[in-house]
Specification:
Blueprint: E1 5-9, H1 16-25, E2 29-34, E3 44-47, H2 57-61, E4 65-68, H3 77-94, E5 100-103, E6 114-116, H4 127-145, E7 151-156, E8 158-160, H5 172-180, E9 184-187, H6 190-195, E10 197-202, H7 203-213, E11 220-224, E12 227-230, H8 231-242, E13 247-250, E14 260-262, E15 267-270, H9 273-279, H10 287-303
Length: 306
């Protein structure tokens, strides 16, 4: 029987702003968890915190699927333990039936210079990644011990999701501001300048991936991305679209100096072949259109009254 009723966390957050409209567009009946009263056209809202869900446990149990996007996005131990690890635990306790889709991160595998498959070893470096992997572990353990439904863990590339009303808590905004200031980006080799980079996913593509994931019948972990870019490609496209003049510094064996920014010195790309094979997912958003939209969004943010 097709899933219709969704319980959604993180609806007002960075990725939720793209996922909620897509769920509604596809005809799902969405109940969204919000921390404070909010009007979200097209869906019901319930007020609560992830670490105290007892009062709304019935709302969660009656859903036919759970989409868990909520996260503190914190590197602090206390917030990660309370909002991410404990919060996910409470959500799993209330999960009754149907698929449970969780937005994790490929950074739980650190930043190796290779194309990552889902079975690459876990290498936790900070509390943010600890929160993501602990939630993955709890979810997959619950799915294997009960018959409630499949646990689908998605590890998306770097988000390109633009909304001037929602603060960019990743570092794309920082890169843009560095470009605006005519800053310099440091690389440790000419090879690194040409090759270092990461995978990305657009907001619309990620929302479509969430919807497709609800059709997966078996528990699993899946990388998902729209494509890859090198840091040089990203920065040169921002310069082109935004009229900025950021530059590059290559200093083998050296370190960044004042006014220089050292991006991740790795080629951190994810292999999303497994997700494509299970769902037929085909990315629809190109890097060029996403950067143009991103620059417009950053300009709109800068133009808002303080």
């Amino acid at each position: 029987m097709p899933v219709r009723r969704i319980f959604l966390t993180g609806a007002t957050g960075y990725s939720g702003q793209a996922v909620l409209p897509e769920l509604l567009k596809q005809g799902f009946d969405v109940t969204a968890l919000v921390r404070r009263p909010a009007t979200l056209p097209g869906c019901r809202t319930v007020v609560g915190e992830l670490d105290s869900l007892e009062r709304i446990k019935g709302e969660i149990s009656s859903a036919e699927a759970i989409v868990h996007l909520g996260s503190s996005r914190s590197f602090e131990q206390e917030l990660t333990l309370k909002d991410d690890i404990l919060g996910t635990s409470h959500l799993i306790e209330a999960w009754h039936t149907g698929p449970f889709a969780y937005a994790s991160s490929p950074t739980v595998q650190n930043l190796p210079e290779r194309s990552l498959t889902e079975d690459w070893p876990i290498d936790i470096q900070n509390w943010y990644d600890m929160g993501k992997f602990s939630s993955e572990f709890q979810l997959r353990l619950a799915a294997s011990s009960d018959s409630r439904g499949p646990a689908i863990v998605l590890r998306p590339g770097l988000y390109f999701i633009v909304n001037p009303r929602v603060h960019d808590r990743q570092y794309l905004g920082q890169i843009y501001r560095m470009c605006q200031a005519g800053g310099k980006f440091f690389f440790d080799s000419e090879e690194g300048l040409e090759n270092y980079g990461t995978s990305f996913i657009g907001g619309t593509d990620f929302a479509r991936a969430i919807v497709l994931s609800l059709n997966i019948q078996t528990t699993g972990t899946y990388n998902v991305a729209s494509g890859d870019f090198t840091w040089r490609e990203l920065i040169e496209n921002i310069n082109r679209c935004g009229g900025t003049r950021a530059d590059f510094v290559v200093r083998p064996g050296g370190k960044p100096e004042a006014g220089e920014w050292r991006l991740h010195q790795s080629r951190f790309y994810v292999d999303s072949g497994a997700f494509r094979a299970h769902t037929g997912f085909v990315p629809q958003q190109s890097l060029e259109e996403l950067i143009e939209e991103f620059v417009r969004g950053e300009r709109a943010t800068a133009a808002k009254p303080a």
